[in-house]
Amino acid sequence: MNFISIAEKTNSGNVIIGDGVVSKLSDIIYAENENGTPSRVAFVAGENIPVETIDRAISSLTNANKSNSDKATSNTYKADNVYKDAITYKKFTIKEGEKNKNLQAVEKLSEELCSFGLTRADVIISIGGGLVSDIVGFCASIYHRGVSVINIATTLLAQVDAAIGGKTAVNLKAGKNLVGSFHQPRAIICDTEALKTLPEEELKNGFGEISKYQLIADTLISNGLLDYFSEINLDGSKISNIHSLNLNEQIAICVGMKLFVVSQDEKESSQEKTRERQVSRTILNYGHTLAHALEVVTKFKIGHGQAVAVGLLFAAELAYDLGRISSERVVEHYQALKAFELMATELELARFDKVEESQIVELMKRDKKRVKSDDIVFVLDGENGIEQVKVKDEAVVATLKTFKAKIN
Questions:
Q1: Comparing 2-198 with 208-407, is the CATH topology the same?
Q2: What distances in angstroms separate CA 349 from CA 94, 210, 299, 355, one per listed residue?
Q3: Distance separating alpha carbons of residues 304 and 302, to the nearest angstrom
Q4: What is the CATH number of domain 208-407?
Q5: What is the pLDDT of residues 260-318, one digit of tens each?
């Protein structure tokens, strides 16, 4: 079981990784915090989350409730989910699927939390993948102007990326993740027991993001990652071969890398490096510019992590066409994906030969990284490592044409 401390500017907590670690939930809830012990806990799960997963989380709380209420004798036990002088809980469900990741979902959940009587002193538990933690996290950030949230990440994608770092967002018709906020979770629980029931497609979504971490590793190492790993008691020697590690170690290494970036630039406040900040958080968007466009043009038939896998290859091809990297470095990108068996299926799902390049370009221009320019902003590899680069439309179109021909 791995424990990694989060030490961020706006909040603090633990990332707990391992088999069965959801049992630690009650310890986190009852631990001292600035608002004291909550009187209400809202469990918010995706509609497809197995009942057993939700029940394990609730059992951790109710078992602690019993021990904190004189063993919950017949005189103290009030109802199925209420213990005297303990914590009241309630389960809520949100619809899954990107089409349901919208402001309406946030409004509905907020109304339900209000009816439950949830206050700023209470806590919300998110149970699910990245979509769930996005909706619940955003809701927690604005409900009563901010309520504590604990993420129980049940997908590999969420455990290595989506549930970590405090970014929350929902979609608009115009594009993906265009309305959101930064709201650091009080804790993140990465229970690998939940991964055992995931279909192969969901695991591949996680491996797509893990491949990204493998490819940005050198840039992070050159900017102080190993020192940070020493501080949080992670073995930096394992970074260069993430694909060869066991799953717990893969998750831990990726979490550590993301926390390092967030510690440098929590709110993506600048695109540029400064003396105080060596790394911009935008490096975590590597491969995402095309990925988000692919999700939209395929109507989300391609999963996020699989779209990122394709986006990583496109970013490498574009960087090569712009003279930023060598052909050998492009090959390294393909090899990184092959190490996680991420090639044939992802490229098949990403087929967009019938989609005009102009449509993809317009979707890319809606990306959140674009500021004060009509150029598309990419995160690209180069001599100085992976960084943000403004690219003219015509250069993007040219690479899109050759890339489409290559994968179709």
A1: no
A2: 27, 19, 11, 13
A3: 7
A4: 1.20.1090.10
A5: 998 888 887 755 555 455 788 999 999 999 999 988 888 888 889 999 999 999 999 99
